[in-house]
Amino acid sequence: MLFSGVAPILLLAARSAAAAAINSAMGRPNDVDHDGALGYKHKYGKWSPKIVIVSMFSPEAEVWYDNMKNGSLGDILANNITVPGLSPLYPHVHCTENGEICQLTMGESEINAAASMMAFALSDLFDLTKSYFLLAGIAGINPKLGTLGSIALSRFTVQVALQYEIDAREMPDNFSTGYFSYGTYAPGEYPTSIYGTEVQELNEDLRNAAVTFAQRAKLADSTGAAEYRSKYSTEDGLYAAGAEAPSVIKCDSATSDVYYTGAMLSEAFENTTQLWTNQTSMTYCMTAQEDSSVLHAIMRAAVWGKVDYSRAILMRSGSDFDRPPPGITPFQHLRLIDQNGFEIAIQNLYIAGVEIVKGILDEWDSTYNKGIKPSNYVGDIFGTLGGEPDFGSGSVFGGAGFSRSSGTEVGLTKRRLAARNGRSAGGWK
Length: 429
Ligand SMILES: *[C@@H]1O[C@H](CO)[C@@H](O)[C@H](O)[C@H]1NC(C)=O
Ligand SMILES: *[C@@H]1O[C@H](CO)[C@@H](O)[C@H](O)[C@H]1NC(C)=O
Ligand SMILES: *[C@@H]1O[C@H](CO)[C@@H](O)[C@H](O)[C@H]1NC(C)=O
Ligand SMILES: *[C@@H]1O[C@H](CO)[C@@H](O)[C@H](O)[C@H]1NC(C)=O
Known about the structure:
Low-confidence stretches: 3-44, 422-429
Bound molecules: 2-acetamido-2-deoxy-beta-D-glucopyranose
Oligomer: single chain
């Protein structure tokens, strides 16, 4: 997540103290039994939620807990299930009484997100083969495409900081940024040394369906947010979207552990996103610290039939702009001024997210049980799930995807690729 003006440590401490007091719940169809060491173990069957809400930290989770407590979908804290390998701060998956909706909190940034999602997706307590994953977190927003409180649903997420970096004060005079892709000699060149986590592409048909559901929501807004966003109304109209009221938008997500701010880095990562996804125009609108990690972990589990990668939805809400308006420095913008976006961004995660949840549940029998077949390529740059990526330099699995039985040796393929690119294999770790 990316946010400003709140001290997360206090919230984390409160949450984990509450979590220590967890105990058993009765009467659900897929019963579980208390077990000293793990808290719970499944007894008669596995939990098989239709939807899993994925939060990164407490405020994103609390908004679901608070609103669902007395709501028609049921209390999401009706069942607390301890899952080995989750974040020590958030060791439980929470589910409604009937087990249809579950929620987990992964912890912030790339390492927490990947480790938590991997543990969950491979857990024997759950059957997630038909589950939809709704990633629902707050983020930095690009004022060229959206504003505080905007809800973005993405087709791509890009791990933008997976690059060489020379401090801008020491970079060559003709570089536009200190970041440039692995294996290249300048910004703007396509990477030739590939790690595999650069880009994740999602089911665009499901994304579009989620947009239709989310558009049923009346998004929260505030006068404080309206005041700050009005500063983005400039002569040249470059940030016109930033000055408008929040809405539901389709655009892509940048993942970075580094919480960057300012026009220079934001533009550099706009360029990276466009270049690595082979798009003809700039589509980057949200910046957060987890999306590539979560989706890569879901994809790894999908290889082994544990989940369906084409059921993942990436939703972010704008809590703060990734760059300041005219007349305000990046430092002032990041640390000294309250942009007033945090509260509406958190509210809108629920307000828009619950429409997606309801939409999927309402149309479960007719549509979502069997799933929405993607008409675009889905997966990573290696073609791990099969098919030819519509970005990158071609599947390393020859379009067939990773084979569980033959266990294709990717290390060899990597060396072949490196040789083809006329580079030493040294770039491959
Ligand atoms: C589940 O945990 C939450 C705290 O995270 C608690 O408020 C709730 O009562 C617990 N539910 C049950 C059934 O114990
Ligand atoms: C930058 O300048 C160097 C040295 O003159 C040149 O070799 C290189 O191609 C230039 N790079 C770009 C991106 O223009
Ligand atoms: C982004 O790409 C454009 C077009 O190539 C270039 O003019 C601009 O300098 C780049 N911006 C940064 C910050 O690298
Ligand atoms: C994506 O762009 C790169 C660099 O321009 C190019 O080498 C590659 O073939 C393109 N991939 C696809 C699938 O269009």
